[in-house]
Amino acid sequence: MGFWGYFVVGRSERGLVECAVFDESHDHLELTDAFADGWQLWQHPPEPELGDIDSLVRGLTKETGAPALAAYVLDSECAVVAAASPSGGSWSACLGRATMARYMEQSEMDIGELFLTPRDAASQGVAWAAAAGHIANANALARVLAAEPEPFVENLFYDLLAELGIEDETEDPGREHGRED
């Protein structure tokens, strides 16, 4: 069984756990990684729910004044991603698109109804990265957004962060991210 739960990424001088958007759930947040320039990655279990992740990232962005990104991971197989920037721009995508499509078939929905194509999401990601003070390559972002997890979607999530410019400057480039067995 893989990981189910949330990843939340933001930039702040203080711990994101102290932000008001987490008042109801701060006891369940766990710092997973700290990156260069004050970027933080927090993990939250699937219960209690954090609510709508689009609203979550917009609220976090408003509170921190910096872009924010969150993902809901489904069994380490795929993830719903939402991002927002201080200018009010927001976008959503998914990681593990083929697996997400299978999940959505169960509810008789089409993946195109909820998520941008990898190319369109990459375009939005470039703008999000620029708002964060980073330069992102749309083609590289589109490749990550179109890729299938090998073996865990958490690895794709870290690849997405790296392509958006959120990475530890001292990180070993060969380091594997993902769940521990």
In short:
This protein is of the alpha+beta class and 181 residues long. The chain is 33% helix and 21% strand.
Descriptive labels:
181 residues; 33% helix; alpha+beta; disordered C terminus; globular
Description of the molecule:
With 181 residues, the chain is an alpha+beta fold. The chain has helices at residues 53-64, 97-105, 111-114, 118-131, 138-146, 153-163; strands at residues 5-11, 30-34, 39-44, 68-74, 78-84, 90-95. A 6-stranded antiparallel beta sheet has the order 2-3-1-4-5-6, with helices on both faces. Strand 2 (30-34) and strand 3 (39-44) form a beta hairpin. The termini are close together.
* Stretches with pLDDT under 50, minimum 5 residues: 171-181
The overall average pLDDT, rounded, is 90
- Count of DSSP strands: 6
Q: Spatial order of the strands in the main sheet? A: 2-3-1-4-5-6
Largest pleated sheet: 6 strands, antiparallel
Radius of gyration: 15 Å
SS field, number of helical segments: 6
Shape: globular
Helix content: 25-40%
Distance, first to last CA: 10 Å
Along the chain, the helix and strand elements come as EEEHEEEHHHHH
Q: Beta-sheet strand percentage?
A: 15-25%
- Which structural class best describes the helix and strand composition? alpha+beta
